[in-house]
Amino acid sequence: MPHPYPVREIARQAGLSEATVDRVLNARGGVRQSTVDEVHRAIADLHRQRSQLRLTGRTFFLDLVVDAPARFSSAVRAALESQLPLVRPATFRARFHLAEAPPIPELVATLEGIARRGSQGVVLKAPDHPLIVAAVEGLAEAGVPVVTLVTDLPTSRRAAYVGLDNRAAGATAAYLIDQWLPDDSAVLVTRGTGSFRGEDDREMGFRATMRTLRPGRRQVELIDPSGDAEVLRGLVRDALAADPEIAAVYSLYATGGNAATVAAFADAGRACRVFVAHDLDAENLALLQHGGLSAVLHHDLALDLRRACHVIMQAHGALSGAPRSWHSGVQVVTPHNIPAEALSAS
User: Fold this and answer.
1) What is the 3-state secondary structure (H, E, C) of the chain?
2) Containing domain of residue 295, as a range?
3) Count of the separate structural domains present in the chain
4) Residue 23's CATH number
5) Is residue 339 part of a domain?
């Protein structure tokens, strides 16, 4: 494919040997399709980051490893790429490893591959699993600082956490629902499977605060095992049929699933009096504008990624100060204060 980049630059971006990249570019065969795809992705990454390549200064190769639905992974990628030209004094180049619910061994293999190949830093969103924690240990031993994003691995040797204060977000959701639902109606709390510490912390903050504010309110937990919207819609319908007191929803999901929940209430002919969700992706923005959501708990993802880059520079001594965690403030977004950048991106 046409490109203006030297083989060496493409090889560094892809994490492959120059010989392999040369073989792919000249279509000489003998290379797996997955490797060919990696080369093409590297060239596409270089195209997107070409303004960053013109900057001077020390170059840091950063690996972004995200286990999340595509819509959230895309938002993280866009947020990082928007910040790369703004990070000073270094030049950052990013490699992307994005997947939705990959098997834990696959995630571990990705992290181990980065440790072998080398990197100046890893920004990681992954489940809190012993094998993931061990892989982070391996990266630390290899001198690669890890910054956890959105969901933490607190028992690992990560350098720092950046992202939402999830317990505070859960407590905020409880407060809002208590204000808008003054009786003891039940709340449906929806979440995905997996051991993401961020969702656990949101649930703990929500439960503790609701117990203080309104001890008589029941919380009905619903775990979506599939990530499929129609499956979730059916599960919510079943929950509504089994419990006539459910009148509100708190969605712990990082993203997705909320349109299916709104549809399930409509299927059942029931009113959802309060619905609090997380993150202003395109689906949640549309639901908020059309009355499906009462409020969205949002945070500045671009700022999170910029802070992650600063942590990595600090870990390498390129920026003063010791690496530390950064918690984003919780923004309560209603239909009347939607951020301009969210509207322009829709």
Assistant:
1) CCCCCCHHHHHHHHCCCHHHHHHHHCCCCCCCHHHHHHHHHHHHHHHHCHHHHCCCCCEEEEEEEEECCHHHHHHHHHHHHHHHHHCCCCEEEEEEEEECCCCHHHHHHHHHHHHHHCCCEEEEECCCCHHHHHHHHHHHHCCCCEEEECCCCCCCCCCEEEEECHHHHHHHHHHHHHHHCCCCCEEEEEEECCCCHHHHHHHHHHHHHHHHHCCCCCEEEEEECCCCHHHHHHHHHHHHHHCCCEEEEEECCCCCCHHHHHHHHHHHCCCCCEEEEECCCHHHHHHHHCCCCCEEEECCHHHHHHHHHHHHHHHCCCCCCCCCCEEECCEEECCCCCCHHHHHHC
2) 166-299+335-345
3) 2
4) 1.10.260.40
5) yes
Predicted local distance difference test score (pLDDT) of residue 55: 44
Whether pLDDT at 46 is above 90? no
Looking at the structure, do residues 194 and 341 belong to the same domain, yes or no?
Answer: yes
pLDDT at 96 over 60: yes
Residue 216 has pLDDT above 90, yes or no: yes
The model carries a pTM of 0.80
Q: Are residues 195 and 339 in the same domain?
A: yes
